[in-house]
Design brief:
Number of helices: 12
Strand content: 5-15%
Largest sheet: 6 strands, mixed
Strand order of the largest sheet: 1-2-3-5-7-10
Shape: globular
CATH topology: 2-enoyl-CoA Hydratase, Chain A, domain 1
Radius of gyration: 19 Å
CATH architecture: Alpha-Beta Complex
Number of domains: 1
Number of strands: 10
Length: 293
């Protein structure tokens, strides 16, 4: 058995017999996926594959979020400079996405996502990549970043169908765990205090099988999906993501980035998302309070 528990700054590694619990651990940032966290996550997964004592993995988040998406950094304005420099920068970043997602799907050991709260943007993509996804009744899904020229993932259409994917990818609306179950992107919804115990119990059940059986049957699904075109679809999405990210100099984003520069990320997100209230699902589905005259 390897001891990886103290090697990560942004992850918690806890092994319980044959099950590894990996916890994204940036709760103050709602577990936003920084480059460092993403590197650590894939390093931890690679270590888990090499450890014969680990048969299954549960992935969750600390605090009130599973993962709130990719870290937007310091909230500054990414515009400016030469177009070719922006394209090069985004190419280097975005073209890794399909490798990361398929790498998780191709992993020789199963990963169960235990979604405990906010699951947005790139965080939702990771939940979609996991072999099984269990959600708390408090889980909230969505891709609100599309409201500022960013991209969705083909995995949403692959799992939920293209009309459902367009319902959420073309609005950025949040949706709750019940809707996630209805459209087929989670396997089960449970009470918040039962989430980890449910995920761990299922992981232990999988761990009872011979590891080669799990590995081979997981590969049948993943390689079958790739043969049907999943890899090409994800690579195409990554290329289109480069174009999306390099289009932030659009005039209709000028005010959003002015606010982000001068007032910070939270203020810019309010400017971006408040026109969409009330949302159809999640905590923002409640109508905004009416001010008294």
């Amino acid at each position: 058995m390897s001891d990886e528990s103290n090697q990560f700054a942004n992850l918690l590694w806890e092994q319980d017999e044959a099950v590894l619990l990996l916890t994204l651990n940036r709760p103050d940032q709602m577990n936003a996926m920084s480059p460092e966290m993403e590197r650590e996550l894939h390093s931890a997964l690679a270590s888990a594959v090499k450890d014969s004592s680990i048969r299954a993995i549960v992935l969750t988040g600390a605090g009130k979020a599973f993962c709130s998406g990719y870290d937007l950094g310091d909230g500054g304005d990414p515009r400016g400079g030469h177009a070719r420099d922006a394209l090069r920068r985004w190419w280097d970043l975005d073209m890794k996405a399909s490798d990361h997602h398929l790498g998780l799907m191709r992993l020789e050991k199963p990963v169960i996502a235990a979604v405990n709260g906010w699951c947005l943007g790139g965080g939702m993509w990771y939940a979609l990549c996991c072999d099984i996804t269990i959600a708390s009744e408090r889980a909230v899904f969505g891709q609100p970043e599309v409201r500022e020229i960013q991209n969705s993932t083909f995995l949403l259409a692959a799992l939920a169908g293209w009309k459902v994917a367009h319902r959420y990818a073309l609005t950025g609306d949040h949706f709750d765990a019940a809707e996630a179950l209805r459209i087929g992107i989670v396997n089960e919804v449970v009470a918040p205090d039962e989430l980890l115990s449910t995920a761990m119990a299922l992981a232990r059940r999988i761990a009872l099988l011979p590891p080669d059986s799990v590995r081979i049957n997981k590969a049948i699904t993943t390689y079958g999906l790739e043969a049907m075109g999943l890899r090409v679809a994800l690579d195409a999405a990554s290329m289109l993501s480069v174009i999306a990210h390099a289009s932030v100099d659009a005039a209709d984003l000028d005010e959003l980035y002015r606010i982000r520069e001068s007032e910070g990320l939270r203020a810019s997100l309010a400017y971006r998302d408040d026109p969409f209230l009330p949302e159809p699902g999640g905590p923002r589905s409640r109508p905004p309070e009416v001010k008294q005259q």
